[in-house]
Amino acid sequence: MEDQKEKLLRLILLEVVQDSMITQGTLKNNRTRRQELKTSVIELASQAASRAMAEAAKNITPPNTAYQFEVSWRGFSGDRALQTHLLKVTSPSALPQIFKNALSVPILIDIIKCVASFFIDDMDLAVKYLENLSCVFHPLTCLVSSRSCFTTIGRRRLNPVWQS
Question: What's the number of CA atoms in the CB half-sphere (13 Å) around residue 17?
């Protein structure tokens, strides 16, 4: 009788162990599937973002007013490549007509940083932008000589660009 009980207990124990192994394998597979799904979702999101940025770059049109420029510029905030593209589709000679006297110091600083990013690659174009910006923002002359027309925050932001 005890042998039968022992065999029965062994069989039950074996079934429990097998069930446990199957359950663990299923859980492991579920975790693996979740991670694979998470990875594929991240990849899809990255691809979608890349396509959206490429599409946005295609649709950039030259602004006609300072307001249009600033709205686009702020919309591309954090993406220097799109800001550079916006600047490059805007003719340097159009800057005085676009901005007149409506160019804010933070936007000017951002534009100068942007111009600095392609200065080495396209020096002539960068110089044209800077020359035409000086027609818009007369204190730029002050910037060249002493930078005293900017606030402390403006000078702190501009200093690294100026030094490079």
Answer: 6
Nearest to 91 by CA among 134, 136, 132: 132
**Environment class of 117 (CB within 10 Å of its CB; exposed 0-12, middle 13-18, buried 19+):** middle
The residues, ordered by sequence, that sit 6+ positions from 115 with a Cβ below 8 Å of its Cβ are: 87, 126, 129, 130
Residue-wise pLDDT tens digits, 44-69 = 667 666 666 666 656 788 999 989 99
pLDDT band at 146 (very low <50, low <70, confident <90, very high): very low
Asked if 91 and 140 touch (Cβ cutoff 8 Å), the reply is no
Q: Is the pTM of this model over 0.70?
A: no
CA 119, chain centre distance (Å): 21
Q: How far apart are CA 55 and CA 49, in angstroms?
A: 10
